[in-house]
Q: What sequence folds into this?
């Protein structure tokens, strides 16, 4: 297929940035979206110009490093996948594709399509853990049975890959789905109970300080989440937050 | 320098306990005066950084990704082994030890492997305490599954995302220490050299990948948890950024590199689809619990499939060759990875490959779907003889077990594996070789440690499934934090290490001049062009089967390609900015050196062992043939060009296991 690409180019954080047009031909439908960009970059470098910078690593949808806002959707038109798992068979010959970075106040652009998502790390530093030291003397793993349903629901929340699609999609740039998933994982497990109050208060406080917006229940984040993280996690976080606030 | 593995004396089962009791400790007040650099934040690096910080050391951790949570351990799917014997099927520390040594084709170190098996149970306890949501059964206890090369169920898992969950556990432990200020985290930083002062590792040179700035960082000890070098093959299941640079720079500063030719080629990966391909995707070994591997018995069916006039589901049972079950009745589809990969290659070389390129075999779930479906129908009181009811119930069970893998397959191949068998083919996955370390995980450079996949010690010539996660976490949580104290006990009065010394300056200048060289080269071809060509040489001549002629050609071709790279590579932009091509160029430059040493090591090892298969050394049935005179670790010392590397041998002694021909029949 032959495609027209309109790609956001921005030299560095202080550059204003603009959309630039590129033509690409002989794209195979079996290519992944990022492999298509590899081919484009090969052509750009051979011409002596600077390639398009984009984040990527595992290319199998689990590391959460890739991003991209493709034709107005985080991770592009397919559902339940990251950009690295999006394949060109989802596009047609002659299509024009708009490629932009994940945009949010809390995710400043570093270069072209690369953004700084370290705000997510800082939210986790504030409470995304259970305070247990490594010792080799923790109790046996089977000492506390955990109901299968609770363990499975915790696992569903824990599958969040921290890519930031929820933030990029949300009209308020809210990080509630991301934070809700982490709070939920621990809230559902007995190990997480001891620090539950401080955890939710500290993580939400950090989230607000980072400049993420609030949740207005449109549910767009859930639709675009490549891992199908459910809105229930936001509800669970809100209930945890309320409980914690009442306790003080 | 003679190699001293520093294996403690005494009976195998007592060595680790005795060693821990005898080594020196650093008291808590003094730990605050000691700095440790940890490079890499995967399971090994992440767990080590967190544990060292918990103990009170000042840790600086580095990763090239934008967050420590993205290290490639995250992609491990199937599970983690531990000798818990929760299933009551006869598992024990000794059995895990035995299976690992045998699985490694008697090329690993007994004492290290025993220690690994010994601490394996602690890992599960630790992870559960951290809130890792392992799979559980209806009684609320932990569930297990089986992996290749063993006869018990000892693999713990979290759906098909076990690596992700374990890494997020280690990441959470790191986050706690980052929040306390005990770990200073450097994201988007790449280590480009080790600094050695008075014979001891005292710091690193790192490049800030956002600004391009070259930075000096000092410490009393340096730990490398920087993973494997599978990307020397260009196409592998590794992440795009996975590289050998940190390990290779350490090698150039005096760390011996052990067994570089031991590579794991994983049997179940999605086959290559075209020249544009940038990486290969693994389908977890856990699928072999329920999937049956086969190719058609008759060439006419193979041809019909390739012509798309026949579907695999239309081939009758008696016309299918379940070749693993046929050749290895005892272990069947669950033979170790090296055996399964070679068997797939044997069938495809004989012309039975089932896709257009002739390089694919089937992994079929139809039997498992019906088996589980019947069980569910029975439990639910439904008609066990109604195929459509049974099939739907069975699909639900398979989906619960492997749903994410099936989805991944469907997205890539555009076929529904619930309805038609998966197509799979072997691909480069893991490297058993790595930096040589002693029992304390210290390299041949004092104060420089290597953990996880970056070292060589535990998996011999072939790693068993679900053992990489075990080793990474064992090293990071339970081994290194003890052994490093013994070394650091001599540093309690040293005080902070200055970066304002001639050693740091020399290393920094070297790094800068190499980067400038790449930028100013202004050749004609992008970095990937050279990387792809290197990968082709490696795959064709140092891949699943190797021979003297091919290896000699590979050595020559890699050296020529390296010269061409330095002459003709084009790296756009400057060194003082975010420049992915520059980072890539540095990594490929190192792969071009390692690749040659790899081929040299494979040439010198005139035997077949595990993942290293020399065509000259096989049994009449085509199985790998070990040779007694090669019962040693090859540790290579850097002497300039890879061809000049000097071989040191560490003899492997088996006092607790009888070395036999490895049989899975």
A:
């Amino acid at each position: 297929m032959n495609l027209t690409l309109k790609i956001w180019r921005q030299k560095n954080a202080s550059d204003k940035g603009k959309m630039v047009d590129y033509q690409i031909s002989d794209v195979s439908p079996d290519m992944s979206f990022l492999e298509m960009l590899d081919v484009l970059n090969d052509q750009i470098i051979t011409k002596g110009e600077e390639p398009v910078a984009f984040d990527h690593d595992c290319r199998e949808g689990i590391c959460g490093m890739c991003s991209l806002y493709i034709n107005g959707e985080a991770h592009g038109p397919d559902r339940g996948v990251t950009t690295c798992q999006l394949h060109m068979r989802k596009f047609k010959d002659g299509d024009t594709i708009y490629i932009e970075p994940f945009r949010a106040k809390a995710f400043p652009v570093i270069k072209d399509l690369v953004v700084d998502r370290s705000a997510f790390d800082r939210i986790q530093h504030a409470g995304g853990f259970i305070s247990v030291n490594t010792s080799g003397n923790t109790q046996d793993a089977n000492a506390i049975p955990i109901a299968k349903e609770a363990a499975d629901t915790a696992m569903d929340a824990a599958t969040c890959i921290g890519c930031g699609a929820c933030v990029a999609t949300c009209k308020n740039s809210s990080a509630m789905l991301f934070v809700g998933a982490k709070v939920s994982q621990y809230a559902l497990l007995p190990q997480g109970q001891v620090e539950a109050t401080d955890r939710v208060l500290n993580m939400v406080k950090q989230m607000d300080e980072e400049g993420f917006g609030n949740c207005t229940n449109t549910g767009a984040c859930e639709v675009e989440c490549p891992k199908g993280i459910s809105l229930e996690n936001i509800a669970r976080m809100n209930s945890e937050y309320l409980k914690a606030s009442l306790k003080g | 320098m003679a190699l001293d593995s520093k294996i403690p004396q005494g009976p195998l089962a007592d060595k680790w306990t005795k060693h821990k009791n005898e080594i020196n400790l650093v008291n808590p007040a003094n730990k605050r005066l000691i700095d440790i650099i940890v490079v890499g934040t995967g399971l090994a690096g992440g767990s080590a950084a967190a544990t060292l910080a918990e103990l009170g050391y000042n840790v600086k951790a580095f990763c090239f990704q934008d967050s420590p949570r993205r290290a490639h351990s995250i992609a491990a799917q199937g599970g983690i082994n531990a000798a818990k014997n929760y299933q009551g099927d006869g598992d024990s520390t000794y059995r895990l030890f035995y299976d690992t040594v045998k699985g490694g084709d008697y090329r690993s170190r007994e004492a290290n492997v025993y220690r690994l098996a010994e601490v394996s149970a602690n890992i599960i306890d630790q992870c559960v305490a951290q809130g890792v949501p392992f799979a559980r059964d209806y009684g609320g206890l932990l569930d297990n599954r089986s992996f290749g090369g063993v006869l018990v169920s000892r693999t713990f898992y979290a759906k098909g995302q076990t690596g992700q969950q374990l890494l997020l556990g280690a990441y959470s432990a790191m986050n706690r220490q980052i929040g306390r200020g005990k770990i200073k985290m450097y994201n988007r930083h790449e280590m480009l050299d080790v600094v050695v002062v008075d014979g001891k590792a005292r710091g690193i040179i790192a490049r800030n990948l956002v600004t391009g700035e070259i930075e000096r960082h000092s410490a009393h000890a340096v730990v490398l948890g920087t993973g494997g070098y599978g990307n020397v093959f260009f196409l592998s299941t590794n992440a795009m950024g996975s590289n050998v640079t940190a390990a290779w720079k350490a090698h150039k500063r005096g760390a011996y590199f052990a067994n570089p030719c031991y590579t794991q080629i994983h049997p179940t990966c999605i086959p290559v689809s075209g020249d544009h391909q940038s990486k290969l995707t693994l389908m977890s070994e856990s699928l072999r619990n329920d999937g049956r591997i086969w190719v058609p018995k008759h060439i006419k069916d193979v041809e019909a499939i390739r012509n798309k006039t026949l579907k695999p589901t239309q081939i009758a049972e008696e016309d299918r060759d379940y070749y693993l079950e046929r050749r290895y009745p005892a272990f069947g589809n669950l033979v170790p990875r090296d055996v399964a990969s070679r068997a797939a290659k044997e069938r495809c070389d004989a012309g039975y490959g089932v896709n257009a390129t002739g390089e694919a075999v089937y992994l079929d779930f139809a039997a498992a779907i019906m088996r589980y479906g019947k069980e569910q129908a029975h439990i639910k009181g439904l008609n066990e003889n109604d195929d459509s009811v049974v099939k739907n119930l069975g699909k639900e069970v398979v989906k619960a077990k492997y749903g994410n893998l099936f989805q991944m397959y469907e997205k890539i191949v555009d076929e529904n594996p619930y309805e038609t068998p998966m197509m799979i083919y072997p691909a480069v996955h893991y490297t058993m070789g790595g930096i040589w370390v002693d029992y304390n995980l210290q390299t041949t450079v004092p104060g420089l440690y290597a953990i996880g996949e970056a070292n060589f010690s535990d998996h011999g010539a072939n790693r068993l499934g679900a053992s990489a996660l075990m080793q990474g976490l064992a090293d990071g949580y339970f081994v290194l934090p003890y052994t490093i104290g013994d070394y650091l006990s001599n540093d309690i009065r040293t005080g902070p290490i200055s970066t304002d010394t001639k050693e740091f300056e020399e290393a920094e200048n070297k790094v800068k001049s190499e980067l400038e060289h790449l930028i100013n080269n202004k050749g004609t071809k992008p970095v990937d062009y050279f990387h792809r060509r290197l990968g082709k040489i490696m795959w064709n001549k140092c891949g699943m089967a190797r021979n003297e002629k091919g290896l000699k050609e590979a050595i020559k071709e890699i050296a020529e390609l390296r010269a061409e790279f330095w002459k003709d590579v084009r790296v756009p932009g400057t060194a003082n900015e975010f420049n992915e091509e520059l980072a890539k160029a540095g990594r490929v430059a190192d792969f071009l050196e390692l690749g040659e040493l790899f081929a040299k090591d494979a040439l010198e090892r005139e035997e077949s062992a595990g993942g290293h298969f020399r065509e000259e050394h096989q049994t009449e049935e085509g199985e790998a043939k070990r040779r007694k005179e090669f019962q040693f670790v090859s540790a290579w010392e850097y002497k300039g060009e890879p061809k000049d590397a000097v071989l040191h041998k560490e003899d492997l002694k088996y006092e607790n296991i009888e070395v036999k021909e490895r049989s899975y029949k």
